[in-house]
Each structure stands twice: as structure tokens, then as C-alpha cells.
Amino acid sequence: TPNTRLIILNTPANPTGGVLERDVIEHFVKGLEKHPHVTLLSDEIYARLLYDGLEHVSFMEYESIRDRTILLDGWSKTYSMTGWRLGYGVWPAALIDHAERLQINCTSCPSAPIQRAGIEALTGPQDAVDMMQRTFDERRKLVVKLLNEVPGFSCIEPKGAFYAFPNITGSGMTSKQLEEALLEEAGVATVAGTSFGHLGEGYIRFSYASSTENITEALGRVKDFMSKRLQA
User: Fold this and answer.
1) What is the largest CA-CA distance in the chain?
2) Which residues have a Cβ under 8 Å from the Cβ of 78 and sit 6 or more positions away?
3) Does the reported pTM lie above 0.90?
4) Domains present along the chain, CATH in parentheses
5) 120-139 pLDDT tens trace
6) For 197-223, how does the pLDDT look when each residue is reduced to its tens digit (9 = 90+)?
């Protein structure tokens, strides 16, 4: 609308694991070209975690919107440096001063050792990242298989990140009710789809950033819980 000033996109996405492929992105860019008053914030933190041969497409590739695109990325996902709180942004020149004031007053800056570690992660060997991606791919296939064996659940394969977002409408519970029941009665931590907005009702997020053994155990508990509930 004429009042729109910012659009935020996250691909690969949390919580769905969805990925915008090039044809969709190019269609979006053509639309955005017609609205020069709108800035795009592109969250690309999961760019290295893609599956099934997909390649990441960055909005920074498109010169026509580059001067009003904010790119956010970091070390938390690709390099498993979550607790280090290290990230970066690429900002339009017109917004740099505002971004600098925000950063200085919110967090100042990461410590020097953390910044040095970030440089080493970027410039060092990337074989560990490739190995992690392959491991996540194996877990992705396992978690989808096991989720589709849970009564009342239906799950499609995510194409990126490390989350599965099954439809749980067959459970007879709301997303929040199921989240709480799985935690309290099955000992499995999930995130209700509504934690990401009202359109997440009917879905629940599972992370497969854990071992194969833990995933198998957790989803076995979920299956047992749902089997007993739907038979009651």
C-alpha cells in the first residue's frame, strides 16, 4: 500500500524451512521495482543450509533494488556460534547513520576475541560446514518420516534451515495446547506455530538441530502421546 515502508523476508525460513527459489524472487523483485518508497530487509541467516540441490539466491544480486535492501546474516547458524552473538548487516548508504546509532546504543560491539573468531570462521576451511549440512540433511529426512507416522500429523519436507513445521490439525488441539501437552506429558520441547503469528495456528515447530538418537526418542514419545490421546 502507499503506507508500506518495509518488507521483511527470511529465506530459508524459520519456522517452516521454506525456501524462495529464483523464479519467485525475481517475480517479487519486479513487483518491488514498482514501489520505490519500500525498503526490503532480507534475513539470510540460513543461506548455507539448503537441501535437494537448491542454491541460495540473495536479494543483493539485484541491482535495481540494492540501494534499498538491508541484508542481515551472521555466524550463529552456519558456524554454530549461536552464543557468540555475532552478526553483520549490509545497509543502504542512506540508513547507515541510523543503523550505527542503533547498534552503538543497544550492544556497542562484540568483544575483540569474538570478532577474531568470526574472521577465522569465514576465512578458514569450510569442510565442517559442508559436513554439518549433510548431517542436517540426513536428520531432515528422518524427522519428516517420523512426523508423518504420528497420528494426526502431516509434514512436508523443508528445503532449508533445520526446522520441520507439521500440520497438527488432526490432533484436535490448538498449537499452544499441543506445545504445552508435549512438554508436560511427553517431555518434548516444541514451539507452537502461533508463536510466529496467528497464521501459524494448526502447526507446530520441531528443530532437528539435535542427534539422530534424540530425534528418534523424542518423536517416539510424540507418537505414543498422540496414539493414546486419539484412542481415548
Assistant:
1) 61
2) 47, 48, 49, 121, 129
3) yes
4) 6-123 (3.40.640.10), 127-231 (3.90.1150.10)
5) 999 999 999 999 999 999 99
6) 999 999 999 999 999 999 999 999 999
